[in-house]
């Protein structure tokens, strides 16, 4: 009886260890994809005041990784890239035009964009993570996944201003 119990525990521990290992590998791939900041942003519609409703196109060899990174990419894009508009939705400039800001303020941005970091306070998925068939494309060996998200730009700007990362609107453009 003890042998069966020992073998069961060993098998359970092996399965648990394998699960942790594979989860860690997916996380590493997600972190690498984030560090490369490969994404595109399209205007979707005008959100409530202080919010942008945008579609973020993220790239990864695994669709799940691209979906997971969409929120991070959206906030990064609002801060550093901005997006062009359409006939019905105006484009937006980035919150900063300092191309070196992310490197200069690395002590702030590294934890800010870490998994579960502060960026999560300013973004939500408007489709609960569901991806329409036309928003999932195979491009070479990887996927291009489009996810619609809402970014609370007013609160994001306020937080970055209070942290001294960007200048307030009244102080001129950063």
UniProtKB/TrEMBL annotation:
The keyword Signal applies. Keywords: Signal. Residues 1-24 form the signal peptide. This is SPOR domain-containing protein. It comes from Flavobacterium xanthum.
